[in-house]
TrEMBL record:
Predominant localisation class: membrane
Name of this chain's protein: Amino acid transporter
GO MF: L-amino acid transmembrane transporter activity
Subcellular location(s) of the protein: Membrane
Amino acid sequence: MSDPSGDGALGRPRPTLGLVDLLALIVGIVIGAGIFRTPALVAGMAGSEGMVVAVWVAGGLLSIVGALCYAELAATYPDVGGDYHFLGLAFGRRLAFLYGWARLAVIQTGSLALLAYVCGDYLQALLPLGAVGASLWAAQAVTVITAINWLGVREGAAVQRWLTLAEIGGLVLLIVAGFVADRVPAAPTVPREGSVGLMLVYVLLTYGGWSEAAYLSAEVRGSKRRIAWVLVAGLGIVTALYVLANLAFLNALGLAGVARSEAVAADVARAAFGPTGAALIAGAVAIAALTSANATAITGARTTCAIGREYPGLRWLGRWNERRDTPGNALLAQAAIALALVAAGAVARDGFALVVDYTAPVFWLFLLLTGLSLFVLRRRDPGIERPFRVPLYPVTPALFCATTAYLLWSSLAYTGWGALAGCVVLASGAVMLVFLKPAK
């Protein structure tokens, strides 16, 4: 990550993270609350159990294709800005700023607030704190996660390792429960009308987060080539767990039962363990949400820090604390926005689907542009050393771009006013560019 001042006053990130840290972050941020929510939505649109499994396998394979593209960019252009850095090199600083703004105002902070609320909802079920208990738990989750990562990257990475182990353990327990439970009878249900594209929107949302590894590329020790294999290994683990989880859900509840369930994981645990199952799954979901929230906080602050280093008007956001190896001010700004969203949610929360509507079009737009940046930078920098090259170029990145373009269209075609709100917030970043000028 560059320091436009040239005097090193902003500090620089150091390679302090090992491959285990990177793997824990990838697995931890991907396996979030989504796997406990989206299987019912997908099952309701699928015509058979085989289609359900096929869509989840396809989601894992498509994610690995995208990860290979990101691995080349991260290995060739390692920077704490991740996509922000790649988009700036390929398309210029103004587009990169819009992406950074989108992550700060829509993508990361929205995800952080949502995950904190999911965690808060389940902690409230276990340890109620009154009428606004879920909001209080959510605010505490954001505050504690930010404080840990403000103390230093080592502290945040250590917490991530333990949370990821607990998260995987909870999901494995749920998978076992699904396979040992006797099937719960359910009346046949007629699948809702939905395209494969809409199913993939929800499935790939649940696989989302693997691209966050790019934001730590400048902080990983050793050869950058290894980033590719960590990404593939992480997504391989996640794909196996997700497919097994859906097979377990189908075994316990059947296609109709999964489709009708409002809390599929809790229903499966209840079928296997009785009333105790509900408490067990509440803890597992809270841990999963907290794990993803911690990883989201780590990577989201890196983009905000990168913006501050490029724009003198936001210089305070770009300061990197070399003693703690963390972007402290960026973490605080991110937490402030996430807490504001939590406060707004305490007054009027519209649920999981609304957040998907709000974030999905903006997310898929910039993921598509990042895929296209690989083509641009291949042509512009033919002689640069590339520690890792995406296999089967240009077919692999073309497949990735085609998939993200289709999902961008699907997220606009099948969503409501929440998508419009996200696009309006993105457009407000263009207004800010009138007043903000990048450093020379």
